[in-house]
Amino acid sequence: MPITRHHSGAWYYQFDRVINGRRTRANRLLPEGTTRAQALDFDRRETARLFQLATGGDKPEPLIADAVLEYLQHHAPNLKNRDDIEAALEILEPFYNGRKMSELAEVAAEYMKVTTVKPATTKNRLAYLRAACRWAWKKKGMGEHDPAERMILPTVKNARHFYLTREQALRVFRRMGLSWSRDAARVAFYTGWRISMVLSAVPMETHSGLFLYIPDSKNDDPQMVPVHQKIEHIVRRHWPPQVTKWTVSKEVKAALRAEGLGHARLHDLRHSAASEMINNDVDLYTVGKVLGHKSAVSTARYAHLAAGKLAAAVAQIGARNSHPDQKKRAA
């Protein structure tokens, strides 16, 4: 039996056979948490695949389960949310077990039909499965095409419409006292950047002034934003701040509660920056550029703010003394 227990406690697959006069070997340490039944199932599938290759059969199409095992073993351990990933993929295992990578879209559709959890939870679980298959396709060469090209995730309406005013934000910052977290939060507010972007940004002096620069953002593109005069002294004197985003989030949340704004969160500073810009007549395209949106769809969540400005403008049509000549005559 090629499945044994490794000294680490995980299941270990070993294949060593002479087939048609040629020796075929393969070894694989299965991810922690793999059950005995899953290990035996992997043994059957992998042994059949190796025999097929050794006897000259066509290269079999990779299975989703194989992609998941590779992902859990070689990539997920490096991620902070690895426990969430493992839990989600375990829940989905009955749906993708034995299915080919090309059937990923069908697997997702079948799960969405029967699940009773909220759409946001469904979307997260399927997104983890999609990430595993795409990683295996890109990094391990499993499959000839993107397995997720036909995959459809549920639509989730999770746009927030809560924004701190500048006055509220300043009160929250004062509550935090002098700290690295306060500096990071202030920069987040005056740039509209995610806190992860803020903490990884580096100052850059240009002929146009001081900028914060990220060589590789969430959207895989470089990102720059001018440094507001209110935070210029922070960026020039002590940057980057020696703090983690988890600490910033915790301390901002405590200050928000102290100000009676417990329903708000750190990420709302990003929305607040967008609100400040739009309410001061900055167009949505420019707002999207500042925030680092790759698609106009992301910026569209702030369209209701722009619509409010448009309504105010339209209300001026026909208003008394709205025309310069009328004002002169009235004088």
Automatic annotation (TrEMBL):
Gene3D superfamilies, sorted: Intergrase catalytic core (1.10.443.10)
Q: Where is the Tyr recombinase domain?
A: 159-315
Q: Which PROSITE patterns match?
A: TYR_RECOMBINASE (PS51898)
Q: What is the lineage of its organism?
A: Bacteria, Pseudomonadati, Pseudomonadota, Betaproteobacteria, Burkholderiales
Pfam hit, one: Phage_integrase
- The answer on whether this UniProt entry bears the keyword Cytoplasm reads no
Q: Does the keyword Zinc apply?
A: no
Keywords carried by this UniProt record: DNA integration, DNA recombination
| PANTHER family documented for this protein | PHAGE INTEGRASE-RELATED, PROPHAGE INTEGRASE INTD-RELATED
Protein name from the UniProt record: Integrase
